[in-house]
């Protein structure tokens, strides 16, 4: 187990740090701008890149690259929604995403406003659709960025920290502990399970909120004003 895992981590670490960091940033940009996150989740890209972090400079560089990439991608997604949203939704890609997912994103944004933007970073499917959906809504760009920036910062620090700490701990233990590989896998698996549970709880809580709001005569929030 240790030999195979060490080989995998060494392969990732053998990539030039600048290239590795740039690829993570570009991956995040593509995830939130052209919906590639529906196919290749950004968390996978960031976790893999973070296992190669060797020092504090690389850690900070990767966190910054992920944040900048995410915000750039969401800005592009917002612009695409603003200028081409209806065409994208009616096109082949929009039809593959499904009317139900588009309607869900629009209803969620209409009912929750800026909170929907913040929480969507941690929700499946919606994290890729919300930037486009916001672009098609009355919400202003600066309001959108004010809500999405803290979410992207929290997300980036969480994923880069877990990946780098798990890999660093494994490298320290691998020469002395035969089962170090299982500990590494266990830490990553526990984090993935935790993320899944948090997403599931948030998803269900927001769904209940949506159902309650749909029955309420109160107007939707107006953070975009």
Structural class: mainly alpha
Helix content: over 70%
Biggest β-sheet, characterized?
Answer: none
Outline type: elongated
Number of domains: 1
Could you name the ranges where pLDDT drops below 50 across 5 or more consecutive residues?
220-225
Short key terms for the protein model shown above:
225 residues, mainly alpha, 80% helix, 0% strand, disordered C terminus
Structural description of this entry:
This protein has one domain. The protein is mainly α. 80% of the residues lie in helices and 0% in strands. The C terminus is likely disordered. α2 runs antiparallel to α3, α6 packs across α7 and α7 runs parallel beside α9. It has ten helices and no strands. The radius of gyration is 19 Å and the shape is elongated. 36% of the residues are buried. The longest helix has 36 residues.
In summary, what is this structure?
With 225 residues, this protein is mainly α. It has helices spanning 2-14, 17-33, 42-50, 56-90, 92-97, 99-112, 114-120, 126-135, 141-173, 180-215.
List the helices and strands and how they pair.
Elements: H1 2-14, H2 17-33, H3 42-50, H4 56-90, H5 92-97, H6 99-112, H7 114-120, H8 126-135, H9 141-173, H10 180-215
Helix pairs in contact: 2-3, 2-4, 3-9, 4-8, 4-9, 6-7, 6-8, 6-10, 7-8, 7-9, 9-10
């Amino acid at each position: 187990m240790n030999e195979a895992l060490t080989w995998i981590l060494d392969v990732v670490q053998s990539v030039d740090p600048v290239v590795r960091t740039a690829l993570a940033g570009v991956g995040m940009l593509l995830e939130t701008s052209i919906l590639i996150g529906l196919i290749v989740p950004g968390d996978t890209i960031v976790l893999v890149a973070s296992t190669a972090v060797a020092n504090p400079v690389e850690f900070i560089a990767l966190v910054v690259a992920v944040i900048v990439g995410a915000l750039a991608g969401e800005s592009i997604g917002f612009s695409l929604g603003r200028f081409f949203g209806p065409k994208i939704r009616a096109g082949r890609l929009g039809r593959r995403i499904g009317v139900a997912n588009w309607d869900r994103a629009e209803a969620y944004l209409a009912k929750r406003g800026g909170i929907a933007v913040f929480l969507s970073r941690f929700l499946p499917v919606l994290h890729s659709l919300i930037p486009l959906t916001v672009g098609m809504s009355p919400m202003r760009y600066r309001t959108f960025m004010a809500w999405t920036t803290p979410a992207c910062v929290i997300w980036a620090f969480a994923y880069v920290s877990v990946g780098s700490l798990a890999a660093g701990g494994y490298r320290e233990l691998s020469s002395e502990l035969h089962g170090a590989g299982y500990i590494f896998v266990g830490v990553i698996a526990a984090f993935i399970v935790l993320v899944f549970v948090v997403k599931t709880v948030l998803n269900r809580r927001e769904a209940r909120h949506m159902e309650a709001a749909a029955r309420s005569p109160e107007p939707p929030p107006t953070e975009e004003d």
